[in-house]
Amino acid sequence: MAIHPTAVVDPAAAIDASASIGPYAVVSGPAVIGADCILMPAAIVMGHTTLEAGCRVHSHAVVGDMPQDLKYHGEVSYCRIGEGSVVREGATVHRGTLAGTSTIVGKRCLLMTNSHVGHNCELSDDVILVSGSLLGGHVYVGQRAIVSGNAAVHQHVRIGELSLVGIQARITQDVPPFCITDQEGNVVAENRIGMKRAGFSLAERSELRAAFGAIYRDGIGRNAAVQYLRGAMTTDAGRRLLAFYAHDSARGSGMRLYNEANAA
Known about the structure:
Strand content: 25-35%
Enzyme class: transferase
Organism: Lacipirellula limnantheis
Oligomer: single chain
Strand order of the largest sheet: 1-4-7-10-13-16-19-22-25
Largest sheet: 9 strands, parallel
Structural class: alpha/beta
Number of strands: 28
Domain UDP N-acetylglucosamine O-acyltransferase C-terminal: 174-252
InterPro entries: Acetyltransf_C, Acetyltransf_C_sf, Hexapep, Lipid_A_LpxA, Trimer_LpxA-like_sf
Distance between the termini: 47 Å
Helix content: 10-25%
Keywords: Acyltransferase, Lipid A biosynthesis, Lipid biosynthesis, Lipid metabolism, Transferase
CATH architecture of the largest domain: 3 Solenoid
Shape: elongated
């Protein structure tokens, strides 16, 4: 175990023998630091936080501090950072609010500089938060989604898998899977390049393109969109789009602009 002599490590913490804790880093409370984790100089891990194997927390990042929620009164809550995830300089991840609840970051996520993950958020695997992006409490982010720089996501919003939230976007309603948004949160296209890179078949890409055209270009409402998707989706990706729309949502999915010419 490599713990720098200037680091402050709580006796209640469980530190794997292969972990490395740098100068002036702080581990406060009953945190669990897994195998091959690295805490860079002045990194901070607090409370009931678990870093799974191979995580890296960079300088001045704070993981597992108490939530910024007036309902929080010191209850025991949790934070978990998945295997191989990286938390860059100045980023913050807060633990859950209610007793026993958690904030969860999946495997291989990248939280770039000064990004923020609010209490009770859930990030699936391979999510990227670009520098300065902000997630309010209870936000869900699907697998391989990207939230661009300085974008702000309202509480309880769902960001679908493989979606690309535009730079400086203001997201107040759910963002469907496989799409691209502009700064106003409007859905402007399906994420064609992202789907190709992710290995989606031609049938899946064609089906999703038709679905986005029907929902956004033609401007049908949510109930009509669900009915259309139930009748038209035959691929696995299409069925995941249907599941997203059919799920009850605290924020709703706006029927916003769609422009096939902008598809990327």
